[in-house]
Design a protein that fits this description.
single chain, 257 residues, mainly alpha, 3-stranded antiparallel β-sheet, 58% helix, binds coenzyme A
């Protein structure tokens, strides 16, 4: 079925004098705004408060880089080593994100919202959530980390900053309650990871959950630029796994059938 290519948008377009973003001329924003406040304006349709601008800036900083070890770090370097241009490599960094790595924010925001709506009693809501996820054998987005087993230092720092900036900490408390119920259930601590931290802060700023993963992606893809350029300038090409990194064991029982 065909559809006409006419769009309705309240995000941006040509206004009376100029290209406008959410009703403000882009030339005015160029002169007066910074990137973080403009990103907030673009996503929400309103200018951020001082606290919102500070916290959004901090969470973008917190997500920008986590070394080469995770997939969003090493994948773009491998893709760069094959001779690809910077944009292709940046796209590969984004593609390396997913529900288990940097792409759990939207899901975590929905979880925090569900607990909030379940009951005014946060503990009852958290208990309901953990039991439901455990019964379905599903992992709760925003919790757990392969390296940080006791606490995620990025989460700690972001929560301190948000509290000091005066941001609403309601969703931080819900996240902490879920972590506490999870720990009691699993008999081991499960940290609120960076995705969970971002979820709590973005909920407090009333950002649409659909944009949650994108904000992590914006930060991490920005952080990939330096890695890609370093790799491209290194003169070392076509990375391969070191000897012994792959163990090959064909399933001969299957092939003989
Ligand atoms: C991040 C993650 C992939 C780390 O996985 P991992 O290194 O295998 O985690 P651990 O070894 O600490 O945990 C293993 C056990 O803890 C439990 N567990 C870990 N994360 C859990 C979660 N988010 N919710 C519920 N239980 C969880 C499970 O019982 C798991 O056992 P299983 O393998 O039988 O399912 C995992 O915690 C996860 O999937 N988290 C949810 C997604 C998420 O937040 N991703 C963003 C990461 S920054």
């Amino acid at each position: 079925m065909s559809q006409k290519l006419d769009f309705k948008t309240s995000v941006s377009g040509h206004g009376q004098h100029d290209l406008e973003l959410r009703g403000i001329p882009l030339t005015t924003l160029i002169g007066e705004a910074n990137f973080v406040s403009t990103l907030f304006l673009s996503v929400t349709g309103k200018k951020p408060t001082a606290a919102e601008e500070k916290v959004l800036n901090a969470l973008l900083v917190g997500a920008i880089d986590h070394g080469i070890d995770p997939a969003s770090g090493f994948v773009p370097r491998v893709v760069a080593s094959s001779g690809n241009d910077v944009l292709t490599c940046m796209a590969s960094s984004l593609l390396a994100l997913g529900p288990y790595h940097g792409g759990a924010i939207t899901g975590a925001m929905e979880v925090l919202k569900a607990v909030d709506e379940y009951s005014e009693d946060t503990e009852a809501g958290a208990t309901w959530l953990v039991k439901t996820y455990r019964a379905d054998k599903k992992r709760i987005p925003g919790f757990g980390h392969p390296v940080y087993t006791k606490k995620d230092p990025r989460t700690e720092q972001l929560f301190i900053l948000a509290r000091n900036a005066g941001l609403d900490i309601h969703y931080i408390n819900i996240a902490k309650q879920i972590a506490s119920v999870l720990e009691a259930e699993l008999l081991k601590p499960l940290v609120i990871n960076i995705d969970g931290a971002l979820a709590a802060l973005l909920m407090a700023m009333k950002i649409d959950p659909l944009a949650g993963n994108a904000l992590f992606g914006v930060a991490r893809v920005a952080g990939s630029i330096a890695h890609i350029v370093e790799e491209q300038r290194s003169g070392d090409w076509v990375r391969r796994l070191p000897d012994g990194a792959v163990s090959y064991a064909p399933d001969t029982q299957k092939t003989q059938k």
